[in-house]
Amino acid sequence: MATSFYESSNYKSHFDSTIEKLRNEIKTQIYSLIESLKKREIELLSGLDEIVNTHKSKNKELQQKLEELTELYKANKKNFESSELQYLQKNFLEEIDRKIESTTQQISSSSFPDFTWDDKLLSQIETFGSIKLKTKESIKYTDKITPIVSVCEKGNEKGHLKSPWGLAIDYTSGNIYICDQQNNRIQVFDSGCNFKNIFDISTSLRQPMGIAIHKGNLYVSEGCQDVLVFDLQGQLLKRLERRHRPDSKESSIYGISVHETTGDVFICDFKNNRVQVYSEEFKLKHLLTGFTKPCYVEVTHTHIIVLDKGNPCLHWYDYDYAFVKSLITRGGDGQVENVAAFCLDFEGNILMTDDYSISIFNKRGELIHKIKDDVTYPTGIKLDSKNRIIILSYRDKNCLQMF
């Protein structure tokens, strides 16, 4: 019987040879593609290294400029303590502010070609070679600002307030923590000012006046002289009692603030006209004096800012506890007579409470806006993560309000 063509050894040999040839060609193309990808990877990494090195070099130069300005400021600040040089001090500090702002803008605009920078550098990577960072919108204070939420119930029920004083915001959860002073408790509201929880800690807390959040803990100052630390669920962790203080004068504690990096605790001793500075372990570090009824304190990365209710004015100090500048709030268009609290927005503007208004000043101390609608004896003020103004109202209304 004759053998068919498809069964012939010649065809099988030809078929095997063709398959082997195709395999070799595919392997060759794959190897070529791999080599091309490796070469492209090297080119991309080299380009990225060049961008990073350029950024580091420019950033180093601009950082040196900032250091030079800082040294210039430190070298001259002692010359500004006498009253006859106050005008020169004001002009000099304004010039320093302008130069620092200009240098900061250079850093922001000259780092990476496709980057937009913000304060916290919250990055959002979209594509390789096109990295964009989220930015905060500039706050506008020119429009009429009115309350969008008001929680006004006086009493001792849940969600009701009685002479509220200090407040703090947990920017992770958005929760608002309030010193419900005459009810001797801390109340918790969510980011929409809805009641959420209550810390019934009247056995350990008397007249809470000031409150701050640091590393997931609540630092609460009592009008009756002690400082207590709780976790965010209301569990007492530690207590600084008056009898344990190196300087155990009878005192009246109001505002409190905690430095984000060092953990140092700053306490307004209203009765003894001073600000006490403690380490994170509650060891006394310094007594900042020369005030008349200090009632509120805020600490930034660069300054200690104290509200002196008796004058009234704000005082800035550096972390060598040296005086830097003051903002006098009495007199002029931006007159604030009965100031009780203040806060800073992320642009450095100052929001300050008065009996029936909130005054907003820029970094140079110039009044840029005033909120008068539905504000009565505010005793606490903060900005949340959406730049909404949160205030507490004392006396008549006993309110938590959002603007």
TrEMBL record:
Organism, scientific name: Oopsacas minuta
The name this protein carries in UniProt is NHL repeat containing protein
Q: Which SUPFAM superfamilies match?
A: NHL repeat
Q: Which domain of life is it from?
A: Eukaryota
A Gene Ontology BP annotation from the UniProt entry? protein polyubiquitination
Please give the coiled-coil regions recorded for this protein.
45-86
- Where does each NHL repeat begin and end? 150-192
Pfam families, sorted: NHL
Give an example GO molecular function: zinc ion binding
Q: Which UniProt keywords apply?
A: Coiled coil, Repeat
- Which PANTHER family does this chain map to? E3 UBIQUITIN-PROTEIN LIGASE NHLRC1-RELATED, PROTEIN LIN-41
